[in-house]
Amino acid sequence: RTLVITAVPLEDGVAGRGAIAVIDDVTERRRLEAVRRDFVANISHELKTPVGALALLAETIMDERDPDVVERLAGRMLTEAHRVGRTIQDLLELSSIEVEEDKVREPVPVRQVLAGAVGRIRPAADQRQIRVELLEPDDDLAVVCDRRQLVSAVFNLLENAVKYSEAGSTVRTWAEADGDVVDIVVEDHGMGIPTRDLERVFERFYRVDQARSRRTGGTGLGLAIVRHVVNNHAGEVLVASREGEGSTFTLRFPVGAADPTALERTT
Ligand code: ADP
């Protein structure tokens, strides 16, 4: 902990007239500054890799005469370009979620949130031959939230569930009210997450397996987006996972957020 104490003389240089001591706790400021610097360094690294690959592929194409090879290299360029595009899109999403000014809060039926997110993941799930089961909650189960943010959080969880499961596997999502909280759950029977990594997976750009995340087109930002969304809604995200068996992510919101009259109180 660093406290900076600045003595401000009350009268120009005249000793003995007293001074005001300005005590400034710079520890937190320094920490935030370090987090920001790390983040910028990480972004630069994340973008430099695919952009470097793009440049190399373009150079190779310029000297290549075989149309089959050119086509293959162009395909790889497209993959890298998509990677850059997805990273930028996720960064924009993350920063728009961080901006609290344009926050919208309305009671949204959880059923609609799940249906919206499942609808978005279907094409990718079908392509990977993964079944997505939606156990529809009651119509009156609602969360006071920014609908777009909540759909995005559930979608990111479903996307991971699909990405880190094998073909033929089933991903399940449901919601339930339990005492003081509303839970939205996404469960998979995929590769799971080692216990030592569980705490870190919500950090920006943290991946358990770099190579696998790259192969599956991951940006390393999905769970950071999820964590931000729950923080914005006074909720929490829980994860239970066992390597080789699968993972269960739970978005938990206080029951106040499920109470439509809470809208009047929060706005
Ligand atoms: P990524 O874009 O790499 O998927 P995320 O922030 O969404 O980034 O997730 C961070 C890391 O957590 C992933 O790289 C992966 O290693 C791990 N992970 C997340 N969800 C799951 C899951 N359902 N099953 C197994 N591993 C997961």
TrEMBL record:
Cell location: Cell membrane
EC class of the enzyme, as a word: transferase
Annotated keywords: Kinase, Phosphoprotein, Transferase, Two-component regulatory system
UniProt KW Kinase keyword: yes
Molecular functions (GO terms): phosphoprotein phosphatase activity; phosphorelay sensor kinase activity
Sequence ranges assigned to domain Histidine kinase in this UniProt record: 42-257
Lineage top rank: taxon: Bacteria
Lineage of origin: Bacteria, Bacillati, Actinomycetota, Acidimicrobiia, Acidimicrobiales
Organism: Actinomarinicola tropica
Record EC number: 2.7.13.3
One cellular component term from this protein's GO annotations in UniProt: plasma membrane
GO biological process, one term: cellular response to phosphate starvation
The protein's name in its UniProt record: Sensor-like histidine kinase SenX3
Recorded catalytic activity of this chain's protein: ATP + protein L-histidine = ADP + protein N-phospho-L-histidine
Key word Transferase present: yes
